[in-house]
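Dear H.,

Thanks for agreeing to be a second pair of eyes. The structure we're designing against is below in token form, covering all 252 positions.
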């Protein structure tokens, strides 16, 4: 049963999810050789404010920018800077908006100009891995079902899931319980419930090399790379668990 208050909260989540998706699509249109991550950051910042929302990364645990931009070997939480993108790069843009006290979180990996088959393969696998995970989302599933599906698909493609980082509950907070790993066993882990929202956001790497952690000055957030020069790719949606299945809130 859904109370009027819950229906209202879901409307807020739908709104902020749609907005995050729109910001991401518009930011993606800027991606081309020569543009800098700081220019993308500036766009995300201003566009989000123009929609009466707030770019949630800015000042989140001291994070200095309004969006994360993770290029090639960067696994996640890349901090935008002034180094221009180059033809052949892949860049994950991770947008999180807050509006009326609710959060929506979504990311995609974009191609900078023409990219190698190698770059295309891992990017396509990351998107499909995310959808394999999302397919599992329903009120009777567990986070282990999601992780199992993601890891099985990723391994079959010859790639490696990142285990240290994953999805999360989301709603009135940017990050909430449960943690949503990109690996797991069927039927294990936290059970999902109707009307919670989670993110499904697998990070996948070309090799099993351990990821490396780096400090961000003035922040407790870390950024990560693959440590051996191999590529990493990621996609993310915010997904509502419904009474019968799920609804992707950040689909544009
Ligand atoms: N958007 C990221 C996620 O998917 C979190 C970024 S935290 C920040 O969970 F501080 F780096 F922005
Ligand atoms: Co997230
Ligand atoms: Co995100």
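And this is the sequence the design step returned. I haven't edited it by hand at all.
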């Amino acid at each position: 049963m859904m109370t009027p208050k819950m229906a209202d909260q879901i409307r807020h989540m739908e709104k902020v999810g749609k907005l995050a998706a729109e910001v991401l699509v518009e930011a993606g249109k800027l991606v081309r050789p020569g543009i800098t991550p700081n220019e993308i950051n500036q766009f995300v910042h201003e566009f989000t404010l123009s929609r009466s929302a707030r770019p949630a990364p800015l000042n989140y645990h001291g994070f200095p920018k309004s969006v994360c931009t993770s290029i090639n070997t960067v696994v996640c939480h890349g901090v935008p800077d002034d180094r221009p993108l180059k033809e052949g790069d892949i860049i994950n843009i991770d947008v999180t908006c807050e509006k009326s006290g609710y959060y929506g979180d979504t990311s995609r990996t974009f191609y900078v100009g023409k990219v190698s088959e190698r770059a295309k393969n891992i990017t396509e696998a990351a998107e499909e891995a995310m959808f394999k995970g999302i397919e599992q989302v329903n009120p009777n599933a567990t986070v282990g079902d999601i992780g199992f599906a993601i890891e099985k698909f990723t391994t079959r493609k010859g790639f490696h899931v990142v285990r240290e980082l994953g999805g999360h509950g989301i709603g009135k907070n940017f990050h909430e319980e449960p943690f949503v790993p990109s690996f797991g066993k069927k039927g294990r882990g936290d059970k999902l419930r109707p009307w919670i929202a989670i993110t499904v956001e697998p990070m996948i790497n070309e090799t099993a090399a351990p990821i490396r952690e780096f400090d961000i000055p003035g922040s407790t957030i870390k950024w990560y790379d693959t440590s051996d020069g191999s590529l990493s790719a990621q996609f993310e949606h915010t997904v509502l668990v419904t009474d019968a299945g799920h609804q992707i809130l950040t689909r544009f």
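Two observations from my side: The mean pLDDT is 98. The chain has four helices and 15 strands.

Warmly,
E.
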